[in-house]
Amino acid sequence: MNFFxxxxxxxxxxxxxxxxxxxxxxxxxxxxxxxxxxRYLIYYIKEGRxxxxxxxxxxxxxxxxxxxxxxxxxxxxxxxxxxxxxxxxIMAEGEIIEKYLSLLNIxxxxxxxxxxxxRNIEMLFDEMYEKFDKDNLSDKIYCISLMHMLFSxxxxxxxxxxxxxxxxxxxxxxxxxxxxxxxxxxxxxxxxLGLHHNYFSILYKKxxxxxxxxxxxxxxxxxxxKMLNFTDKRIKEVALENGFADELYFSRIFxxxxxxxxxxxxxxxxxxx
Length: 273
Known about the structure:
Blueprint: H1 3-12, E1 17-27, E2 31-32, E3 40-47, E4 50-53, E5 59-62, E6 65-69, E7 76-79, E8 85-93, H2 95-103, E9 112-114, H3 119-131, H4 137-158, H5 163-178, H6 186-193, H7 197-208, H8 212-230, H9 235-241, H10 247-258, H11 262-267
Helix pairs in contact: 3-4, 5-6, 5-7, 8-9
């Protein structure tokens, strides 16, 4: 490690560390894994096809796109016969990598993103390869900035028209079907959609202008209002049957929403909405 590498490593600490980058051109019969390193291997697949066996035993097809080998991953991949394998990669570690992957919903069991047009991604890998071994501080800092840019460009590639709306439509349907379950929350909703909960929450609010937890609570409150209007059930029963395990919490958010307590709402017919 040269002086500038050591200085950058020390400055960024656990946030982000870059170790090396490389390329493999038109390789035949390439096999890789399990991966026994404590660092991420981040790939751009330029051409070729391979079969990836994930830790949970699922078989995924790798092709042109973005792929991540997670630290201590038990996954393995094998190139398909007659399909030359061209890849470019960066080895890195740090909390910043973890956070970006979480935001983009890239996980150990979903480590691959297909890209129809990966030219901008490839350009950043090439730029990293060219600058990585330069012995000056400006290029070391530039390489750090390229990692941030890489994930920003990848996010842009993934933001395609219709994708977010499809998730929101599915989420609204799942909320209608599950809001009465007290254990149903944003984590459970995101899991049903196959998304990381942080990524889903950002996507949902960006598309609808409200958070998914507010949407869930709104459905629960509407259901509670109907019961208060048309049944003689006690407040505790109304809360529980509409997904509120805690009667006090139900009363608090009900009053915040409607300006009166559930009991006052039930007694005063003129308040009903």
